Amino acid sequence: MATLAETSLTDSLAASGADVLTDEGTLDFYAHDIYSRGADLAAVVRPKDKHQLAAAVKAATDAGHPVAPRGGGMSYTGGYTQDTPGTVLFDLAQMDRVLEVDDVNMTVTVEAGCTWAALRERLAHHKLRTPMWGTLSGLKASVGGGMSQNGIFWGTGRYGSAVQSCSALEVVLADGTLLATGKKHTRPYGPDLTGMFLGDTGALGIKATVTLKLIPEADCHGYASFAFEDQNSWFAAATEIERRGIATECFGFDPYLNALRMKRDSLTSDAKQLVGMMKKQANNGGGVMKALKEGAKVVAAGRDFLKDANFSLHVLTEGRIQAAADADIEIARQLVAHYGGREVENTIPKIIRANPFGPLNSILGPDGERWAPIHGLVPHGRSAECFAAFKKLFEDHASAMEELGVHYGTLVATVGGAGMVIEPCLYWPDASNPLINDTIEKAHLKKLPKLKPNEPAWELTQKLKKAIVDIFFEHEAAHFQIGRTYRYRDSLEPRADSLLKAAKAELDPRGLMNPGSLGL
Questions:
Q1: The domain boundary residue, chosen from 94, 110, 141
Q2: Phi and psi for 192 in degrees, rounded to 5?
Q3: Are residue 309 and residue 228 in the same domain, yes or no?
Q4: What is the reported pTM?
């Protein structure tokens, strides 16, 4: 039976008009992120608009409860999971509307719970998109989450990370104030007040609405894949491609992640994804026959086209005319040849671009293993040595990893004007969790082995994760999804840290807005 205090809190939250959930199963589900479970929650609130959000935040903090935002739930760094019990979690999934597409001033304003996939679908009718137009998890990941956590992928090679596409926000502060930042058509205007709330992992406020810049959608695309025998040439080629500004996306896999990808994906699923790509190429003037030929190449390549590749690199280009996209691919070919790489079948970039927001089945490994990516945005000049430090870490722990079934693979991606993302992904045999089981397609989940809890493997994974974070710190890395994982405040000079704490004190004097995030 609920206590009087619990009933009072529920009634106060419900007075906002938002949905309030307090049953045990719901609270347990929302206490998880992809990586782990946080402390018990007091309630989950699902507002339907910014006014309900503001009123419910005020009701929660007036009652002395911490509050925290949740977007698509795809965090794996403690972005919204809590260290102490009693937080009211705000699930923004019902705030999912595209509020305004302004094709004169070239901006789009959305509610924070709108997914990247939904935004792309809406903007397709206008033949527009945002410069950075989503993460690979965009089927679930929200735009508001992208502003709080930052992120990369689609468009990142040329336009940078997610927050660089943002021009203005409406943010709910800890006392329920609805604060508008910036001008929709330009950022910044004076000191960058919008930027203060970007990448904060919800430590300073809860995003209610987001305004993003728009650009015309590209009409034509180019694709190429390359293989390298050593890591130094791999990094050198990727760095030079980013410097030239020729790729909208440039990413790659080390030998271990190459092997995992070949094991995970099936030719049948690839063929299904090709349908969309072939239709698009035909509709864009490429012709049905050309589209069918491109699709046939991918199917003919099967899953063996990378079997002899140590390191792979995948490049996507775009332009208003096909000749422009092809010219950029040709420059990439020349750069790769200069650094000793060779071209292979371009299956991977074609398949991913054909289905940019695919099912999130890879959050478990191909044998049902748990998965944890740990990333850093490293200066180009230190990327190869940082990667080498990870290789040594895994070599030093090879015996324990083999004994406990822990393994890894590494993804890299260039970020326009910023450096190289390196993302070692750890895999270990362990039980799944409710959020993972809800996220993966049911048919796919049924095919995977159901693993039991494995405390020794979990403890080794935790140890390796901390060591990876420390290596990134030593190599001057920046991070997305800072949450409660990365050493953000350790990287700040004393006066910068004081400024951050002063901003927190001004915006959240009682420390009730997602406490612990950013290390605050």
A1: 94
A2: -80, 85
A3: yes
A4: 0.92
Q: State pLDDT tens for residues 177-200.
A: 999 999 999 999 999 999 999 999
Q: Tell me which DSSP letter residue 355 carries.
A: S
Contact 369, 274 (CB under 8 A): no
Q: Are 13 and 56 in contact (CB under 8 A)?
A: yes
Give a yes or no: residue 487 inside a domain: no
**Sign, CA torsion 279/283/284/288:** positive
State yes or no: pLDDT of 276 exceeds 70: no
Give φ, ψ of 278 to 5 degrees.
Answer: -65, -40
Residues 260, 346: one domain?
Answer: yes
Q: What pLDDT band is residue 292 in, cutting at 50, 70 and 90?
A: low
- Residue from 122, 207, 121 nearest 163 by CA: 207
CB atoms under 10 Å from CB of 300, counted, come to 10
* CB atoms near residue 495 (< 10 Å): 8
**Residues 102, 90 within the same domain:** no
Residue-number span of the structural domain to which 315 is assigned: 220-354
120-124 CB contacts, 8 Å cutoff, 24+ apart: 120/356, 120/357, 122/98, 123/214, 123/217, 124/217
Nearest to 56 by CA among 209, 210, 211, 208: 208
